[in-house]
Amino acid sequence: MTRLQLRALGPTLGSLALLLAAFGFQYLGGLAPCHLCLLQRWPHAVAIILGVLILVWPARGLALLAGLAVLVGAGIAGYHVGVEAHWWAGPASCTAATPATADAGALLDQILETPTVLCDAVAWRWLGLSMAGWNGIASLVVAWLWLRAYASSSASQ
User: What is the tens place of the pLDDT at every residue in 35-52?
Assistant: First the structure.
């Protein structure tokens, strides 16, 4: 096993753990994900695929791509934290809108069109941080491990 393959195991397993935790919160804990929660999962899925590819074909650039993908996930998590804290507006598709009309029929239509899981509502918090906040921190650690694997492997790999 090459140095790159050995160094890629940790961040691959880290992304896998974060993805499994998200599914555990959803399916075992009953916390349905919002749109931004789902978006945060994709970079980890990409990193896992790239990690498996590194085990088969130890190309150094794959570690860089995985690290960048997980950094994108950390950015999405940071954006999500800001939406939850109401520092900025989130996507219209998953945030609570202020009623634009006093018309009861239009208000009912607006309520029925609002998704059941809102991105600006914190579903779970621990030590003052939401799940998005913890995912952001963990994603930064995993991204650092990926970038370390990239930097520490020789350019010939």
Answer: 999 999 999 999 999 999
Q: What number of CA atoms fall less than 13 Å from residue 17's CA on the CB side?
A: 12
Question: 66 near 146, Cβ under 8 Å?
Answer: yes
Determine the residue type at 106.
A
Sole residue written with tokens 């935790």: 21
The amino acid that residue 11 corresponds to is P
Q: Are 43 and 76 in contact (CB under 8 A)?
A: yes
φ/ψ region of 125 (left if φ > 0, alpha if ψ in -120 to 50, else beta) reads beta
Whole-angstrom distance, CA of residue 121 vs CA of residue 83: 9
pTM value is 0.82
- In the chain, DSSP finds a helix count (H) and a strand count (E) of 5, 2
